[in-house]
Amino acid sequence: MTARAITAVTAALLAVTAVTAAFAVLDLQGPVRVVVTLLFLFFVPGWSVIAFFRPGSSSLTWALVIAASVAIDLLGAQLMLLTTWRPALASVFALVVCAVLLGFHLVTARRTVGGHA
Fold it and tell me: Structural domain tally of the chain?
């Protein structure tokens, strides 16, 4: 993937993260929240990690993103089952960590696009 594509995907997923957080904070319900939350769960955690490795092909990248996202989500669910069941705390943790990593990727990708890296 090109640096511009990485920047666009990262910005879009950062927007999904922000919308997911807004839905959670405002306690809005409905089908839009379900869709946005599923987008977050299936793509954002994996992209936050896989973008560090910059795999070559787009199909490989997205396969790894979805697989890593599901694995990270399952790890979080297992940790909640083994400790205390606090989904609100787990979602805040996931949102904050992913937002920080996406912000890092966005800054790094923009430096690459701008020719400063």
Answer: 1
What whole-number distance in Å separates Cα of residue 44 and Cα of residue 3?
Answer: 18
Which parts of 1-117 fold into alpha helices (H)? Answer: 3-26, 31-50, 58-82, 87-114
* Rounded Cα–Cα distance for residues 74 and 65 (Å): 14
CB 18 within 8 A of CB 95: no
Per-residue model confidence as pLDDT tens digits over 9-34: 999 999 999 999 999 999 899 999 99
The two tokens of residue 1 are 């993937």
CA dihedral 36, 37, 41, 47 (to 10 degrees): 40
For residue 7, give its domain range: 3-114
